[in-house]
Structures are given as structure tokens and as C-alpha cells.
UniProtKB/TrEMBL annotation:
SUPFAM superfamilies: D-aminoacid aminotransferase-like PLP-dependent enzymes
Stored Pfam families: Aminotran_4
Enzyme Commission number(s) from the entry: 2.6.1.42
Domain of life per record: Bacteria
Cofactor (UniProt): pyridoxal 5'-phosphate
Name under which the protein is recorded: Branched-chain-amino-acid aminotransferase
Function of the protein: Acts on leucine, isoleucine and valine.
The organism of origin for this protein: Autumnicola patrickiae
Length: 355
């Protein structure tokens, strides 16, 4: 069905899976809603977006995404307030970032009108999947894949832009310990580290498995040249609190311009928290841990929100972080989630209502 006010073709699922879902016991990204949004790129243009029942795709085995990883994605969340209103958080930033990622991967830009109309129609269909209450959300995964058949190593002429949704609670189910990387790198100057390129994540799996064997859940990536500076965790940007000063690395072409990261920076300024955005050396953090000045490390990201780190490892040494009553992680999480769930004033105009 296509209506004149709505540039999205909608085919509803005949039945819903929702009754079979235990919303109090969700592992991240395992359950998906009843519908998905798809928009094809062919003959030099994005075609009319479609919403259809969630299900497998049929693709040629030679599609370029399978061979050259020409794929980018985004992570967003929808929240429901106490009056059943649905909110997105800074969705314009996700829209801009997916096209920035696409540009770096030679993927054609996606039109803004399709991004918003497709997502909003999808969320309206899936509104029952968005549960109220802090910690509950619907994780939204927009992504683009190169679908053109053929293994010549050149940008595809055909793509699919899609959105799938998954009800979410916490990303990490337990405590998070990180290892500072000494050998492997996530990104290099001039590379694709700033982009949400699918391959950035695949490249982390092997070193992360090695770190897991040593009792860490994540790696904090260091700069590829010297491994002396701490950059990001791959699923999260990273903040350090030394004394009462908050420090985080500046974004560059190796580090993702995280939306939660920049929201924390804005909140720190609003609440006069001493913040430095500058290179953070491994040495200063190890020294601060040894002298007791290192009070916190926490990660930030859409999926994880704000995730305290309980300890870290470097060069065979392990350090535990103190448990604080008045942590910055807790402070920012409270401020941020109250804005996201429409329980606090939205001074920065970050909320976007889906109507
Ligand atoms: C997100 O936070 O949305 C991300 O994209 C990280 C992902 C690996 C879960």
C-alpha cells in the first residue's frame, strides 16, 4: 500500500512474534521485530523504500558485500516515555554519520527523507516492541550493503539500505575489564576508523578473543604507530577520570565520532566538570592507577550507553578500579537517560519525537 502522504510501501506481517518474547530477559541483538525496511539502489537512484515482514534476503553469492565488505551501519535507539510517546536521540547525527561512512566506502548517499520516513513508519508499526522504563529500548540498526553480483574489485552499482530493530536492555551482561592493546590495531591514519564500516568490527574479533582468554571483555585500542596513546574500545568511546578531571581522546580519522561521546562532552561543559579532550597516554593512565589518582574509566556508545570499566590490563599487569558512590559514569548516565526517556528538560534539542 502506498499513500500520497507516505513515500514508503508497507506490507504488514500477517502475525506477530511478540508474544513469544521475554522482554525481561533479552540478550543484546538476538531477537528482531516483525518488520524491516528495505530500499534498493539501482540504475543510479535509490528506489521507493519498502517495509515488509522481517525475514531472510535472497542474494547472489557473488554480491560484493560478501567479498569486499562494502558495508556500513549505524546504531540508534528508540525510547518510550510514561505517556507512550516514542523518542529518538539525535537521529540527524546518525543520518549524517551513515552518509559520511558511506562516502568513505564509495557507497552512494542515502536521502534524508527516506531515512526518516522509512524509520518512522517502521517504528510506528513496531511500537509495542518498545517497552517503557529505564534500560528498555528498541535498538535500531540501519545498514547498507553492496548487492551487485560480480567479484570485480570495484564499487557496486547496486545496494540495499535496510533497517532492522531489536528490543534491547544492557549490552554487556556483566563487569567489563579492558586490555590496553600493545600489538594489534583497530585503525590507522587515512583509514576507515572514523566510519562505521562493517570490517572495522570484524577486524577486532580475533584480538578481542585473545584478550578474552586473558579475562578481559574488550580491548582499548591504542594508536597504530606507537601504541602509546589510548583511542577507543571499538564498541565504545572511552573516558578516563584522573582525580576529578575527565579526559577523552579527540576524534580523528581513526576514532568514531560517537554521539553518546559528544553528548557527554556537552553535559560535562553544562555541569562544569573539568574535561580535557586530548591525547591520553598509556603511561599517564598506568601511573595514575599506580598512584591511586585514576578513579574511573568508562565507555560510551549507543548500545552500551555508559559502561563503567572495573579494571584494566597492560603489559602483563592488572589494575582494579575503585567502586565509587559518586561516579561520573553514574552521573552522566542519569542525566543522559533522563533526556532520552523524556524525563528531563532537553536543553540541547536532542530528542526527536516519532509521531
Ligand atoms: C552501537 O553502540 O550502536 C554500536 O554500533 C556498537 C555495536 C558494535 C553494538
Amino acid at each position: 500500500m502506498k499513500t500520497s502522504t507516505n513515500p514508503v510501501d508497507i506490507q504488514k506481517a500477517p502475525t506477530s512474534k511478540i508474544e513469544n518474547v521475554d522482554f525481561n530477559n533479552l540478550a543484546f541483538g538476538q531477537v528482531f521485530t516483525d518488520h524491516m525496511m528495505i530500499c534498493d539502489y539501482k540504475d543510479g537512484a535509490w528506489q521507493t523504500p519498502k517495509i515488509q515482514p522481517y525475514g531472510p534476503l535472497e542474494m547472489d553469492p557473488s554480491a560484493k558485500v560478501f567479498h569486499y565488505g562494502q558495508a556500513v551501519f549505524e546504531g540508534m535507539k528508540a525510547f518510550k516515555d510514561e505517556d507512550d510517546q516514542i523518542w529518538l536521540f539525535r537521529p540527524e547525527d546518525n543520518f549524517e554519520r551513515i552518509n559520511k561512512s558511506s562516502e568513505r566506502l564509495a557507497i552512494p548517499a542515502f536521502p534524508k527523507e527516506f531515512f526518516f520516513s522509512g524509520m518512522e513508519e517502521l517504528l510506528k508499526l513496531e511500537k509495542d516492541w518498545i517497552k517503557k522504563g529505564f534500560g528498555n529500548s528498541l535498538y535500531i540498526r540501519p545498514f547498507v550493503i553492496a548487492t551487485e553480483a560480480g567479484v570485480s574489485a570495484a564499487p557496486a552499482k547496486e545496494y540495499k539500505f535496510m533497517i532492522i530493530c531489536s528490543p534491547a536492555q544492557a549490552y554487556y551482561s556483566g563487569e567489563v575489564r579492558v586490555q590496553f592493546s600493545e600489538k594489534y590495531s583497530r585503525a590507522a591514519d587515512g583509514g576507515v576508523g572514523f566510519a562505521k564500516a562493517a570490517g572495522n568490527y570484524a577486524a577486532q574479533f580475533y584480538p578481542t578473543n585473545l584478550a578474552k582468554d586473558e579475562g578481559f571483555q574488550q580491548i582499548i585500542w591504542t594508536d597504530a604507530n606507537s601504541h602509546e596513546y589510548l583511542e577507543e574500545a571499538g564498541t565504545m568511546n572511552i573516558f578516563f577520570r584522573v582525580g576529578d578531571k575527565l579526559i577523552t581522546a579527540p576524534t580523528n580519522d581513526r576514532i568514531l565520532d560517537g554521539i553518546t561521546r559528544k553528548s557527554i562532552i556537552a553535559l560535562a561543559k553544562e555541569f562544569n566538570i573539568d574535561l580535557e579532550v586530548r591525547r591520553v597516554s598509556v603511561k599517564e593512565i598506568v601511573d595514575a592507577a599506580k598512584s591511586g589518582e585514576l578513579k574511573e574509566i568508562f565507555g560510551s556508545g549507543t548500545a552500551t550507553v555508559i559502561n563503567p570499566i572495573v579494571g584494566f590490563g597492560h603489559a602483563g599487569q592488572k589494575f582494579d578500579l575503585p567502586k565509587l558512590e559518586d561516579s561520573y559514569a553514574g552521573f552522566f548516565k542519569d542525566k543522559l537517560t533522563k533526556i532520552q526517556y523524556n524525563q528531563a528538560e532537553d536543553k540541547f534539542n536532542w530528542r526527536y519525537q516519532v509521531k
